[in-house]
Each structure stands twice: as C-alpha cells, then as structure tokens.
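[job 4471] stage=fold_predict status=RUNNING
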Amino acid sequence: MVDADPQCNLTGMVLSFGGDPDFEDFYTNHPTSNIYAAVRPAFSGAPEKIGAAETHETQCPNLLLLAGHVDVATLEPELAMAHKLQAALPILQNLPGALGHVIRATAENQGCDYVLIDMSPSIGALNQNLLMHSDFFIVPTSPDYFCLLAIDSLSKILPRWAQNSAELRSQQGGATYKLPDQSPKFIGIVSQRYRPRDGRPAAAFQKWIDQIVVRTRENLVPVLTKNGMCVDESKMASNLPGPSHVELAQISDFNSLIARSQQYATAVFALTNAQLEAQGTVLAISVESRNQFRGIFTTLAERVELLTA
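[job 4471] inference complete, writing structure tokens
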C-alpha cells in the first residue's frame, strides 16, 4: 500500500498513530522511509539515482506500507510544470517518471503482486502523475449530487490526462525515469458511505447510487473506452453484476466497527471477537456486521483479480 495522500491517514491508521507526536517520532526515527524522502533527490537535482524505498510491515502477513509524508504536496507545482514544459526544459525530463519509478522499484524489491495507491480527492498534478503510472484504477463514489457531477468532470479530465501523458512519452528522450507505455484502465466504481436498511442502501441513498451508476455507464465508460482507458466491456460484463456492469461493490458505513479497526490497526473484516469489545446482543450484531463486510471485501478482491488478470 502506498500512502500518496498528503493527509497521511493511511499511514496513521496502519501504524496506529494517535496524533501529531507519533508522526514526528516516526519521521525522526525513520527519516528516509517514506514516499517523499524516496523521490525527493529527483526533484532537488541531487546526483544520486532514486530507487526502492523502505517499507513497513503491517498487521497482515505479506501486506506492506510505503508511508506517506505531508511534504509530498510540495511536489505538485514542479510536476505541473514538468507535465507542460518537459520538452522545453530538459532539466525537468526526469520528474514525470520519478514517482512511478520509486513505486515500481519498491514493489519489485519486495516481490509484491499488487500495489494499491491511496490518493487524495483532487485533480491536481500529483494525482494525475500517480494515476498515469498505474495499470488500473477504481473510482470510489458517494451517494450525493456532488459525486454525480464529479463523474461528468472525470469524463472530461481523464482523457486530457491520457493525451498529456502520450505527449510526455513521445518527448522522454534520454530520461532515466520513464512513464509507462500505456494509460491505466478503469475497472469499476465502489459505492460507499451510505446507511443500509434491511441489508441494502436506504432508499434515499439508493436513488443517488442508481444515478451515479447510470452516469458512469453512459458517460464515463464510453469516453474512457475511446481513449484506451477502460478494460474490455465484455470483461466487465462477465465479472460485474447488474445491468450496468460497472459497480465492483457496495460498502456501507462501518459505524462502530471503524473505531475498533483504527484502534487495532486491523481491517474491519479481520477483527476478532475479542477486539470487538462487546458482549451479548451488541456482540452478536457486531459479529454479523463484521462477517458481512468480510463477504463484501472477499467478493471485491476476487473481482479485482479477475478484471486485472
């Protein structure tokens, strides 16, 4: 897991940080083991070559974390400039490929099968760069009007990113760190952050989910397909349920389980009965919810594997 969000929530949760002092101690004791430190030499003009970063173990076997850093946000202006002026200013030629190089080198060094990049909810140069270095991408959605508008925005923005990356690839020349040869491919949306009723989204939430699914199917998928940024639609149809074939999973609010998940730095579906810290009827309800989430995440993982194979 790569924490590329400057807020560093993933890092704090995985490493069980309680606040700013924990982050300060971590960066003091591990000054070079985060994504910003690993890529900074390329942006500071340092002569040393960048490569694999140091990772940290998590509570789950074989699941590693490349920690985030708030200063990763400071890379944004230089990336924006490099995306526009790489050809005109050779000094910028290595910047577009630097982040991807560090992430791939780290994955190869650790023998990772998958890399999951946690990005901030923005459309800035940092996210553009991270997305265009990826092989596949998922769009998380929330059941509201603003997310519906965001689908339309992505339909305009993502093709522009693909075009810009194609231009950058044609201008890489002697760059040491290069962009991938092709654009990432969309594999579906995840509907989340809703309240369930009788095992399904409550009616008010389902209304927005249905509209977002239709907008994704009718607006986003055709545009992405035209620009080579979507997996084959027959593959989506055979692996995703419903008439739209764009929804990977529906994940409701975790409610009280999220507090235990953060407390024990453990995924909601992996919490033990003891970690639920409940008794009687409350424990039974918590166990049922945890098991439901386990089924949802298992199905989600299986679909991701099939769509990215």
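[job 4471] summary: The CA atoms of residues 83 and 164 lie 7 Å apart.
[job 4471] exit 0
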